Automatic annotation (TrEMBL):
<feature type="compositionally biased region" description="Low complexity">
    <location>
        <begin position="71"/>
        <end position="80"/>
    </location>
</feature>
<keyword id="KW-0963">Cytoplasm</keyword>
<dbReference type="Pfam" id="PF01008">
    <property type="entry name" value="IF-2B"/>
</dbReference>
<dbReference type="InterPro" id="IPR042529">
    <property type="entry name" value="IF_2B-like_C"/>
</dbReference>
<keyword id="KW-0808">Transferase</keyword>
<dbReference type="GO" id="GO:0016740">
    <property type="term" value="F:transferase activity"/>
</dbReference>
<feature type="compositionally biased region" description="Basic and acidic residues">
    <location>
        <begin position="47"/>
        <end position="62"/>
    </location>
</feature>
<dbReference type="InterPro" id="IPR000649">
    <property type="entry name" value="IF-2B-related"/>
</dbReference>
<feature type="compositionally biased region" description="Low complexity">
    <location>
        <begin position="90"/>
        <end position="99"/>
    </location>
</feature>
<dbReference type="GO" id="GO:0003743">
    <property type="term" value="F:translation initiation factor activity"/>
</dbReference>
<feature type="region of interest" description="Disordered">
    <location>
        <begin position="1"/>
        <end position="115"/>
    </location>
</feature>
<comment type="subunit">
    <text>Component of the translation initiation factor 2B (eIF2B) complex which is a heterodecamer of two sets of five different subunits: alpha, beta, gamma, delta and epsilon. Subunits alpha, beta and delta comprise a regulatory subcomplex and subunits epsilon and gamma comprise a catalytic subcomplex. Within the complex, the hexameric regulatory complex resides at the center, with the two heterodimeric catalytic subcomplexes bound on opposite sides.</text>
</comment>
<protein>
    <recommendedName>
        <fullName>Translation initiation factor eIF2B subunit delta</fullName>
    </recommendedName>
</protein>
<comment type="similarity">
    <text>Belongs to the eIF-2B alpha/beta/delta subunits family.</text>
</comment>
<dbReference type="GO" id="GO:0005829">
    <property type="term" value="C:cytosol"/>
</dbReference>
<dbReference type="InterPro" id="IPR037171">
    <property type="entry name" value="NagB/RpiA_transferase-like"/>
</dbReference>
<feature type="compositionally biased region" description="Low complexity">
    <location>
        <begin position="26"/>
        <end position="35"/>
    </location>
</feature>
Length: 459
């Protein structure tokens, strides 16, 4: 009887199950016929539906990743041959629906070849409380707008790499670059220089420079004056006449607010140095250097103590220059032992990057420490600064509102601020190019100096 049961048609699992349960040959033959009839109708439709589903899944995966998973195709082809393979495929489909799509799974090496490599953000290690502070960055010239002049591109690269560092050198380079922009400018037909130049030509240059490095206060003041000069031109002014007027204005601004201002400040500050004085300064500032050399040229004998910035090391060059001029110099590489050095000084001369409307000083980091130590020791603190660096609108009471992050000293563990803020109570006086009581005015009188000046260059 068992031999007759084994002669049932292949692929009839119900017949095999009947043989295992000990059914009679007649019942086994009836069950086999019934199962064969159902299999030919249902399995064919089911296999067709599964095949279509697998094709759709492979197409979706290829569209996302770019390459289809051949291992799954091979498994899918073998699934139709038996219930074991089909059960494996069903399990894979259930996992795919319940979890993330297979197209987004990482490879064995942990990388996704289809995803672009994202560069590490240099600002990732900066705390949120300092995230508002900008940082200089070098922008490839190929990424600059096509409207940016080649001269401005060169200045932007020099600013980003700190080849142009202090405010006045950046201002002068910017004005000279704008001069070349004006020389090459041609007003489009149907437009006027006073309406077209600023929004379509000047602003792209300013935006590029700002992206390379945040604009200093001197640049902001000069650009405001330049835009005011352009807007004063009548709409009917000839292009050649307007361009000539702008070029003359830039030359006048450089001569009066930079060249002559440096000479006037150095002359006024040199008068505050007496025979036998010991002058203390921090780092290297061009106005302080010119003042000391001017005092030496006047025949005065004095000593200089240079407290250097431990990061920039500009004081080394200042000390070499002064010694070469015959001035005795005591050099300190950092702020260590600051109190006794300040107590032994007669005056402290400091250079500033900007002065705010409330009289506070914006200067390289470490300046505030020197000023506070000097004031506590009863030593006068004199600041040298051009009026082009004065900010008449903004005030500052800390070092976190207006500052920059040093891009060369920014790591995941620490970072450095380029400037600090010195309150006006630690400043004895400010020497500018405008004489007021011998050129030495209190920091609080800054607005009076600006009103006295009244921006004559835009008239």
């Amino acid at each position: 009887m068992a031999a007759e049961t084994n002669e049932a048609p292949e692929g009839a699992p119900a017949t095999q199950d009947g043989a295992k349960t000990g059914s009679t040959p007649a019942n086994a033959t009836a069950n086999a016929a019934t199962t064969e009839k159902l299999t030919s109708a249902q399995l064919k439709a089911k296999a067709k539906a599964e095949k279509a589903a697998r094709r759709a899944q492979v197409k979706e995966a290829r569209a996302t990743v770019g390459t289809g998973p051949p291992a799954q195709d091979k498994g899918a082809a073998s699934d139709g041959k038996g219930a074991k393979g089909k059960g494996k495929q069903d399990g894979q489909q259930t996992q795919s629906k319940g979890g993330p799509p297979q197209a987004h799974r990482p490879s064995i090496s942990g990388r996704r070849p289809s995803m672009p490599i994202v560069e590490k953000d240099v600002r990732s290690g900066i705390p949120d409380s300092f995230s508002h502070l900008p940082m200089a960055k070098r922008i490839p010239t190929s990424q600059a707008q096509k409207d940016v002049h080649s001269a401005v591109l060169a200045v932007g690269q020099q600013m980003a790499t700190f080849a142009l560092n202090d405010s006045i050198s950046r201002l002068k380079a910017t004005l000279l670059a704008f001069r070349k922009v004006i020389e090459s400018y041609e007003t489009p037909e149907g437009n006027s220089l006073s309406r077209h130049f600023v929004p379509h030509v000047l602003n792209p240059q300013i935006e590029y420079l700002t992206e390379c490095r945040p604009m200093c206060f001197a640049m902001g003041n000069a650009i405001r004056l330049l835009k005011g000069k352009v807007n004063k031109f009548d709409i009917d002014t000839a292009e050649d006449e307007a361009k000539e007027g702008l070029l003359e204005w830039i030359d006048l601004l450089i001569n009066e607010r930079i060249t002559m201002a440096e000479y006037a400040i150095a002359r006024n500050a040199a008068q505050s140095i007496n025979e036998g004085d010991t002058i203390l300064t921090y780092g290297r500032h061009r106005l302080v250097e010119k003042t000391l050399l001017e005092a030496k040229h006047d025949g005065k004998i004095f000593d200089v103590t240079v407290i250097d910035d431990p990061f920039e090391r500009g004081g080394q060059e200042l000390a070499k220059t002064l010694r070469h001029a015959g001035i005795p110099v005591l050099y300190s590489p950092n702020l260590g032992g600051l109190r006794p050095k300040v107590a032994a000084a007669s005056n402290v001369l400091l250079g500033g990057e900007a002065i705010f409307a409330n009289g506070s000083l914006h200067a390289p980091s470490g300046t505030a420490d020197v000023a506070m130590a000097a004031m506590n020791a009863g030593v006068k603190v004199i600041v040298l600064c051009e009026t082009i660096n004065f900010d008449r609108d903004r005030v500052s009471v800390d070092s976190l509102t207006y500052n920059e992050i040093d891009p060369e000293r920014n790591t995941a563990d620490c970072f450095r601020l380029l400037f600090d803020n010195t309150h006006d109570k630690y400043i004895t006086g400010v020497i500018t190019e405008f004489e007021s009581g011998g050129g030495n005015s209190p920091a609080q009188a800054i607005l009076a100096l600006l009103r006295k000046q009244e921006d004559p260059l835009i008239d």
